[in-house]
Amino acid sequence: MKQRNYTDQPLRDLPFFTGLGEQDTHVLCQAAKVKDYNKSEHIFRQGDKADRLFIILRGQVKRYSVTADGEETSVMLCTRGDVLGETGVFSSAGHTFSAEAADDTRLLEIPDEILRKRARENPEIPIRVMAALSRDMHRLQIENEHRALMNAPQRIGCLLLQVSSSVVTGAGGTFSLPYSKALAAQILGMRPETFSRALAQLKPLGVSAPREQDVSIADFKSLIDYCCQHCTALPGECRGSRRDRTRHKAH
Question: Distance between alpha carbon 132 and the CA centroid of its chain, in Å?
Fold first, then answer.
């Protein structure tokens, strides 16, 4: 893990800072540290003291809970702009989950004492912390909905649509998974063998995985029609389905 003082990392496109006043942004960032974590390095563990707010600047973080017998559960992958540790910022509670860098990751870490101090002067600060918590709860709600209403191939198709959100093509496209299929199975709460079987069931829809990290989708619309019929996510909430895939030619 490498640590440095905050410099001029662009923040205005991050939900926590969008629209926040210059003074508050300056004070928070002057007190913050930017830290780099290597892939598979733990950021914190379940039960550790929650003494700072983490905002992802780059990379991906796997957050998960651990059962009494040591099994990882409730796995969620967080990306740029997501906030970690918000549940303990205004309390003495420890972290309710563990967080591990899923790849090389850069975080902005803001001490809880400076957040509490600014919150006493500006109620906008706790509102933003609560908004981050609300976004997490909504993501969990959607995931629980998917587990209840969608079959395994549909849930995998949904995940593939989300991780291919940068592919904007007419018919389809090929892209690389940003993480292993084993982690993808964890995120969906599946065993690796279940994930492999369900992925193979998407072949009639034009989905193939010729190599470990590569996935090809022949027709995004067909996959969207198959996966999204049981999802209540609103326009703008889903990176995967509700966007224009037709503006550019396929590569």
Answer: 12
pTM of the model: 0.82
Closest CA to 144 of 193, 191, 189, 197: 189
Of 98, 105, 228, the C-alpha closest to 178 is: 105
Which residue type sits at 142? Answer: I
Burial label, 208 (beta-carbon count in 10 A; 0-12, 13-18, 19+): middle
Are 181 and 227 within 8 A, CB to CB?
no
Neighbours of 223 (CB within 10 A): 25
Average pLDDT for consecutive 10-residue bins of the chain (251 residues)?
54 85 89 94 93 94 90 88 86 87 94 91 91 88 89 94 73 83 91 94 92 86 87 73 46 36
Under DSSP, the state recorded for 94 is B
Q: What Rg do the C-alpha atoms of the chain give, in angstroms? A: 19
